[in-house]
Amino acid sequence: MPEIKENFAETNEALSKSQRRRDALELKSLARDLIAMSHSRLARMPLEQDLRAAIDEARHIRSNAARKRQLQYVAKLLRRSDATPIIEAIEALELDTRQLKARQHRAEAWRDRLIRDGDPAVSELLLHRPGADTQAIRQCIRKARSEAARDKPPAAARVLFRLLRDMDENQPLPPLTPHSS
């Protein structure tokens, strides 16, 4: 998200009219994002009480014109306060989301490789995770292959994915090399 001037009111006189307008539009966009944000994510935002109340009010408004007015009001409240902690909190949440997605993709890639390649892939995984439950991994691979051959739902593949995801939570799984995937 573009950087918004820290103290909007103090720097207002030194900025050009165009810059003030860009900053106001960025804050309006931030207000729109906050209103659209899920309740659980919004609860983790460092918001002042009046701003939180204005956002909650905007969520309940059904009239388009009234919703636009409330959006303007939320943006006005953002202009009056320092939006930097809110922007940083949103960026931290987005970083957490990207890291979670990366973990999921790593576990999926390892699951697919283990099912496809079998013992050579298990051996490579064990080089990086010597304490892994080899028996459970091999058993899941056998069941997943059997289920795939009989067009059954991939229950064992899901179990293998969860095993890998748990391993990745403790310590990230090594990325698959291009020649190994």
Secondary structure elements and pairings:
Blueprint (H helix, E strand, L loop, with lengths): L7 H4 L5 H20 L2 H5 L5 H12 L3 H17 L3 H34 L1 H10 L5 H16 L5 H16 L11
Helix pairs in contact: 2-4, 2-5, 4-5, 6-7, 6-9, 8-9
Structural classification: mainly alpha
Specify the number of helices.
9
> What sort of overall outline do the alpha carbons produce when their principal axes are compared?
elongated
* Number of E-type strands: 0
What percentage of residues falls in helices of 4 or more residues?
over 70%
User: Which class of the largest domain in CATH terms?
Assistant: Mainly Alpha
Order of helices and strands: HHHHHHHHH
CATH architectural group of the largest domain: Orthogonal Bundle
Low-pLDDT windows of residues: none
**Distance N to C terminus:** 35 Å
* Gyration radius, in Å: 25 Å
Average pLDDT metric: 88
How many structural domains are formed by the residues? 2
Strand content: under 5%
Biggest beta sheet summary? none
The fold-level CATH name of the largest domain is Diphtheria Toxin Repressor, domain 2
